[in-house]
Structures are given as structure tokens and as C-alpha cells.
Amino acid sequence: MPTTIAHRRLPMTGRDPHEAHRTATPLELLYDLTFVVAFGAAGNEAAHYFAEGHWRTGLIGFVFAMFAVIWAWIQNTWFASAYDTDDWIYRLLTMVQMVGVLVLALGLPPMFESIDRGSHVDNSVMVLGYVIMRVSLIVLWLRVAYHDQARRRCAMAYAVALTVAQVGWICLLVADTSVTVMLLFAAVLAVIEPAGPIIAERRYGTTPWHAEHIAERYGLLTIITLGEVILGTVAAINAVLHAEGWTLDTALVGLAGVALAFGMWWMYFVIPSAELLQQFRERSFDWGYGHIPLFASIAATGAGLHVAALFLERQAHISEFAVVLTTAVPTSIYVLCLYGVYSLLTREIDPFHLWLIAGTAVVIVTAIGMAAADAPLAACLLVLAAAPRSRWSATSWSATATAPTCWSGVLAARPRSEVQPAASSLSRARVRAREADASSPTPNGAAHKSVAPASKSSVICAATLDSSPTIAASAGPATPPSCRRRR
């Protein structure tokens, strides 16, 4: 988008899906800050109820909150990728959505408390905030239906599905129901909400979303949710400091929390999501929706570390074994979700991934077993932090003379001297392919940027190798090998 000061009203006719150098806008970054509050509020409430041993309350409340927060973010992100005009109307409606996020966050404590009491669910403030966000998005889709005649039916399908779902949420807001009835009703609405985009895109045509922009936006929310892990780490360190001062346990808890967040970050960004999304645009729903439990599991890991802090402050009424489970379970879910999202996008299950999952399971079970044997909590968390590291070490292993298969499963083990030439040649091949594609214009007259179908393995190999500085630094001259061809 060209930089402007006036931000005059612009027609929403769709962005170029192959626009060069498309990045997140300052407005999108500001919008994301409100979700920091929502993630923090949900994690804090869940942690306190878990620490009290009220597992049902913490789990139901956290899942309900995570779906509302993450789903609202996902729909706005995909809309912005396709139709962000950055005019004054779009900016004001985005601000309305930000207000809705904050209202939703304010409604989380009474919602958790009412679930704990068990008589009825006080979700009025939370649902009000959610509806505020969605009504703003409905207005935006109606603007698209008015301006983008080629995709009018698709935009109207989005608007109708959103409207139907919001009517249902308003009915849930007005009704004074039990927890069971609320869950059943919410489950139906949770099916209607994701079904709307699938029907709209597959029946009435696709919207012009940008693969690199979407991948960047999802990466940014991943970092935001990892911030909850860092906050949980700080809370745990602070608890140890108040109880014991600066001791070895203080250092171990801090190292464990930071290493856990760092390993989860490394795992996520080793995957070339932008290239894969561009290659398999028809599988974007699998990738996009698969991030709902992935984002929730990261936030839950931060909540688990907060539970550990309450335990160290002697404010928790659960065992050390249960405390470790509050971090180990969401970490396990994160690992499975990440492998699952990758496999759904590429339609592949690499045998090497299964070995990595098995190795991760061994690490997590070891940490849980140590907790069952009354080992110090700091030691259990430190072992648990090695779980993500057992996978990203596959892309930066420099202790031996051979490089194992990359995390993405596209490189067979081979001498390290062969790796750098392969990375260089594949990177050059990818650049040449993109330059060649740039000569063919799109219907909008813009340069077309895509990845040739035959070069799928090359794209993944080059992206994965480029992300591993230790492999690149230690490689020597040799004849470039060819990447293993994927099915």
C-alpha cells in the first residue's frame, strides 16, 4: 500500500495477492497488542483455578476464552490480508474491534467465577465484547460486497454467516443457562463460525489473501503468545526470589522457562510457511484453523508456568506432579499441533518426524516421572524445557561430522561438507524461479510471485538450510547433492 496522510475512503476491491514486500502494517501491530491483554487475562484466570485444583473450571473457561479470542483474530487477519485499504473507515472499524477485545477480556473473570459456582454462566460481558468485534467485521464485509462486484457473493456469504452466528451468541448472552446447556449451545456456534468461511471460499470463489503476509501475521501472534510463556517464567522466578532469594533454583527456573519459550519459537519458525502456503493455497483452511489449538497450547504453557509460580509461593493446593502436568500437557499438544499443521499442509507424514515425536515423548515422560518421584520442581521444568530442543537440534546439530535430516524431513543424513553447496545452489534456484515467474503478469498487471510445482522440495530444502547458521558456517566444498523428491 502506498503511504498516505489523508487516508481518504477507498473502494474495497481487493489487494494484489502477489504484491511484493507485503508486510504487517503499524495498525495490525497495534491491533495485536489488545490480544496480549486477552491472552494474559485468560491465562491468569486459568492458572489460579488450576492451582486451586478446580480443573473443570479452569479448562472450560480457558477453552471458551481461547476460541473466542483466537477465532476473532484469525478472521480479521485474513480479511485484512485481502482487503486492507487503510482508509479512515477501515481504521475506525479496526479500533472498534480493539475495543471489543478489551471488553471481552474484562468479561473473563466473571465468566470463570460463574463456571466455578456451577449454577449458571455469567458470560454477558465476554459475549458482548465478542459481538462488538464481529459486528465491525460484518460492516467491512458489506463494504466488500458493495465495491468488489466480482466477489460479491463470497463477501455476502461471509456477512450472512457472521450475522447468523452473532444472533446465536446474543441469544446465549440473554439466556440464563447452566454450564452444560451453555457448552452445548456454544459448541453448535463454534461449528457455524468456522463453516462460514469454508462455504464462502469454496462455493463462491476465493478472496485475494497474500501468503507471505498471512505467514508473517501468524508468526507475530505466535511471538505474542510466547510472551505469555516468558511472563509465566518471570512469575516463577519472582516466586523463588521471594521464598529463597538468589539460589541455584532461581537460575534453573529462569533457564527452564526461557529455554522452553526459545525452543517453541525455533520449532515454529524453522518451517517455511509462506512458501508452503503459496504452493498449496487450496489447503489454507487446514493450516489456518490448525493454529487455533496451537496458539491455545502456547498460552496454556504460560499458564502452567504461572501455576508453578503459585506453587513455589505456597499458594497452590495441588501436588508438584499436577503442577508439572499443567506445563507438560500443553507443551505436548503444541508439538503435536505443529507436526499436524505441517502434515496437513504438505499432505505428508515423514517417518523421521515420528522418531522426533517419540524422542519428545520420552523427554516429557521423564519430566513427569521425576515429578512423581518428588524431584525438585526446578529440575523437572529444566528437563521439560529440553522437549522442544530435541527437535530444533536436528537443524543445527554441529557436534558430529554428519547433518541429520532437517526438521521438515526433506534432507536425508549426509556429510556436512555437502550441505552448504546444496543450500547455495537451491537458494539460487529459488531466486531464478521467482525472477522467471515475475515476467508473467497477473490479471491485475502486477508481477506474479509463485513457486513452481516441480520445485517443492527445493523450496523447502533451501528455506530450511538457510535458517540454520551452524550448518552453513561449518560446511566445505563438495558436489551439490540433489534434495530428496517429495511425493
Q: How is this structure best summarized?
A:
The chain has helices spanning 26-51, 55-83, 88-106, 108-117, 124-147, 152-174, 179-204, 211-244, 248-269, 273-279, 284-312, 320-346, 351-372, 377-392, 419-438, 456-466, 469-474, and strands at 402-403, 414-415.
Would you write up a description of this structure?
- The chain has 487 residues and is mainly alpha-helical.
- The chain has three domains: 24-207, no CATH class; 210-395; 403-474, no CATH class.
- Helices cover 72% and strands 1% of the residues.
- It contains 17 helices and two strands.
- It has helices at residues 26-51, 55-83, 88-106, 108-117, 124-147, 152-174, 179-204, 211-244, 248-269, 273-279, 284-312, 320-346, 351-372, 377-392, 419-438, 456-466, 469-474, and strands at 402-403, 414-415.
- Strands 1-2 form a two-stranded antiparallel ribbon.
- The model is unreliable at 392-487 (pLDDT under 50).
Task: Please describe the structure with a list of short key phrases separated by commas or semicolons.
3 domains; globular; mainly alpha; single chain; disordered C terminus; two-stranded antiparallel ribbon; 487 residues
* Poorly predicted tracts of residues: 392-487
Number of helices: 17
Helix % is: over 70%
Average pLDDT taken over every residue: 81
Helix and strand string, N-terminal first?
HHHHHHHHHHHHHHEEHHH
Distance between the termini: 38 Å
Q: What is the makeup of the main sheet?
A: 2 strands, antiparallel
Rg over CA atoms, rounded to whole Å, is: 24 Å
Described by the principal axes of the CA atoms, the overall outline is globular
**What proportion strand?**
under 5%
User: Helix- and strand-based class?
Assistant: mainly alpha
Number of domains: 3
Q: Numbering strands along the chain, what is their spatial order in the largest sheet?
A: 1-2
